[in-house]
């Protein structure tokens, strides 16, 4: 974990080096000041030597200015190093997430990734700055002050040594007890973010069903869980302050009593006692700052593990050596394909799939909920890899292609496609960044999206809100189809992507495809037989297997599932999963 995190310091190594250097210099200046003060008292004030007072006082001013400047520079470089470190962590996580396959993404919740990119990175940023500044300053201050205290009077300085040992033991106990709480609290943060995200994204449904009170209770519960975990951790951490203060004041009283007796006995000077009291505060305050650093590090260990996990996650789908860059055509072949979402699963989602689809064919795919229709087409663009067997596109196993080259030739319009904030043209150019407005218009005509776009006040320059919240479901689907067509793919997959479109518009889209892109292989997943009965051939899926594969007429003759669906829909019931009315 530490190696992974420190690798992101990168260009901020110089700042990370200079910060502790300036902190050490600040400590040296601060440590010398009490010694100079003792000299002023013993050799200046007590002897009435004004010249000595002026000279040593001038040196003290220089030391103070030096300490101020080095402290400011340490703060400057520390801030630059920690914020740069946080920036690189976010960049590394975000870039690695982009390489994830669907199976990698399935391991993490969206809210969990958001927490890692925000709260966890902020914790690491604060800890890194504390480590650079306080982890150098505090131990150095502690060592220097302890050394000077023993130099002034070893007998009295023993009090500090005993206090440091006792406080160190207490600090070790405190850190061990609180570490478990902080690990748990960030898991609760994931639940809290998930509650917020789900509520905000589904706010229209929440209001439509008047579920505001339910969502408030759900959020309150998640928030209270975070609160309870923090209270448990903080209830231990707060013990740090009173124990520290008790030790500080106890040391001051003990040193004052010992020092006063030694001064009366003539074995110590007044200035020495003054410097010892100053070093007492330096030593114990340094220990207090160290305890704060350890608490911060304890919190950040859990965050560091979560961030490193995302950075170290290896994508399941990668390019082979010498990948093939060109897809010859849109032919598709499934050869004894098995597929499971989890490798250890004993029951595969797809079982022994064998299919031959010719380039340019229009293939319909029909099946009930859970029959693995989407799983089947996801293998074509290598969103997932097969568990056994092979999928070939253009006569080549998809695992031999460059992933980007393959996906540029296989356009997928998923069931739950998303539009991004920006104009309609911005969204369409996801398919082709260099597309002209005329090319965008033509794609929209094929997808029957031009009808509603032309009615909008700003046409193709109309701004789409995040997630496409200002367009209807059918309009969103047509824009997503147009966006997929912008890639000019050899294979076009429509995964139930006309479900929110009326049957007349659905027919227009299919007719436009047949006339305008006859060379593109088209796979259409649908629940309505009317959407696929004109396809060249139709695949009937049942429980992860191919139950039938043929033309509409052939399946009506010899496939019981297709016959049942056809009869139920012709009887007026369009639901695939419900029997037709008699």
Tags for this entry?
12 strands, alpha/beta, 19 helices, disordered C terminus, 582 residues, 4-stranded antiparallel beta sheet
Description:
- This protein is an alpha/beta fold and 582 residues long.
- Helix content is 62%, strand content 10%.
- The protein has helices at 2-6, 13-45, 50-99, 102-105, 110-152, 154-201, 203-208, 212-237, 240-265, 270-312, 373-378, 403-409, 424-428, 437-446, 450-453, 473-485, 503-516, 552-558, 560-570; strands at residues 332-339, 350-357, 362-367, 388-393, 396-397, 410-413, 422-423, 463-464, 491-495, 521-525, 537-542, 545-550.
- It has a 6-stranded mixed beta sheet with strand order 6-9-10-3-11-12. It has a 4-stranded antiparallel beta sheet with strand order 2-1-4-5, with no helix packed on it.
- Helix 5 runs antiparallel to helix 6.
List the helices and strands and how they pair.
Layout: H1 2-6, H2 13-45, H3 50-99, H4 102-105, H5 110-152, H6 154-201, H7 203-208, H8 212-237, H9 240-265, H10 270-312, E1 332-339, E2 350-357, E3 362-367, H11 373-378, E4 388-393, E5 396-397, H12 403-409, E6 410-413, E7 422-423, H13 424-428, H14 437-446, H15 450-453, E8 463-464, H16 473-485, E9 491-495, H17 503-516, E10 521-525, E11 537-542, E12 545-550, H18 552-558, H19 560-570
Parallel strand pairs: 3-10, 3-11, 6-9, 9-10
Antiparallel strand pairs: 1-2, 1-4, 4-5, 7-8, 11-12
Helix pairs in contact: 2-3, 2-5, 2-10, 3-5, 3-10, 5-6, 5-10, 6-8, 6-9, 6-10, 9-10, 14-16, 18-19
């Amino acid at each position: 974990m530490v190696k992974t995190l420190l690798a992101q310091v990168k260009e901020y190594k110089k700042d990370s080096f200079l910060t502790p250097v300036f902190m050490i210099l600040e400590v040296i200046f601060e440590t010398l000041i009490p010694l100079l003060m003792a000299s002023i008292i013993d050799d200046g004030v007590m002897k009435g030597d004004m010249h000595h007072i002026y000279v040593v006082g001038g040196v003290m001013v220089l030391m103070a200015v030096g300490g101020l400047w080095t402290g400011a520079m340490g703060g400057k470089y520390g801030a630059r190093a920690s914020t740069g470190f946080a920036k690189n962590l976010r960049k590394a996580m975000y870039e690695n997430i982009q390489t994830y396959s669907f199976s990698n993404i399935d391991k993490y919740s969206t809210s969990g990734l958001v927490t890692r990119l925000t709260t966890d990175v902020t914790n690491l940023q604060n800890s890194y700055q504390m480590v650079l500044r306080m982890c150098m300053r505090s131990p150095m201050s502690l060592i220097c002050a302890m050394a000077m205290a023993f130099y002034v009077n070893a007998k009295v300085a023993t009090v500090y040594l005993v206090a440091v040992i006792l406080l160190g033991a207490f600090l070790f106990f405190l850190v061990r007890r609180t570490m478990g709480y902080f690990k748990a609290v960030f898991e609760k943060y994931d639940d809290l973010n998930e509650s917020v995200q789900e509520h905000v994204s589904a706010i229209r449904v929440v209001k439509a069903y008047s579920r505001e009170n339910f969502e408030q209770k759900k959020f309150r519960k998640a928030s209270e869980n975070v609160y309870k975990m923090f209270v448990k951790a903080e209830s231990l951490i707060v013990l740090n302050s009173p124990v520290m203060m008790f030790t500080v004041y106890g040391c001051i009283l003990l040193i004052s009593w010992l020092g006063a007796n030694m001064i009366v006995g003539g074995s110590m000077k007044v200035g020495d006692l003054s410097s010892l009291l100053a070093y007492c505060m330096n030593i114990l305050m340094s220990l207090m700052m160290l305890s704060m650093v350890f608490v911060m590090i304890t919190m950040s260990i859990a965050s560091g593990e979560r961030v490193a996990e995302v950075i170290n996650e290896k994508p399941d789908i990668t390019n082979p050596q010498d990948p093939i860059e060109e897809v010859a055509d849109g032919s598709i072949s499934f050869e004894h394909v098995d597929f499971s979402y989890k490798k250890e699963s004993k029951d595969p989602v797809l079982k022994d799939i064998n299919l031959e689809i010719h380039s340019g064919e229009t293939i319909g795919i029909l099946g009930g909920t859970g029959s693995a229709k989407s799983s089947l087409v996801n293998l074509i663009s290598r969103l997932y890899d097969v568990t056994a067997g092979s999928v070939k596109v253009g006569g080549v196993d998809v695992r031999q292609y460059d992933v980007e080259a393959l996906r540029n030739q296989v356009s997928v319009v998923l069931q739950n496609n998303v539009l991004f904030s920006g104009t309609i043209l911005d969204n369409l150019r996801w398919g082709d960044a260099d597309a002209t407005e005329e090319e965008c218009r033509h794609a929209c005509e094929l997808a029957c999206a031009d009808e509603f776009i032309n009615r909008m006040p700003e046409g193709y320059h109309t701004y789409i809100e995040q997630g496409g919240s200002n367009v209807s479901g059918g309009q969103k689907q047509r824009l997503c189809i147009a966006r997929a067509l912008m890639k000019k793919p050899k294979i076009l997959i429509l995964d139930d992507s006309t479900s929110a479109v009326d049957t007349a518009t659905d027919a227009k889209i299919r007719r436009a495809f047949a006339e305008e892109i006859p060379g593109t292989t088209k796979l259409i997943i649908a629940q309505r037989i009317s959407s696929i009965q004109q396809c060249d051939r139709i695949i009937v899926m049942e429980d992860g297997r191919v139950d039938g594969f043929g033309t509409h007429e052939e399946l009506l003759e010899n496939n019981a599932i297709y016959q049942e669906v056809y009869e139920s829909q012709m009887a007026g019931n369009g639901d695939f999963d419900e029997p037709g009315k008699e």
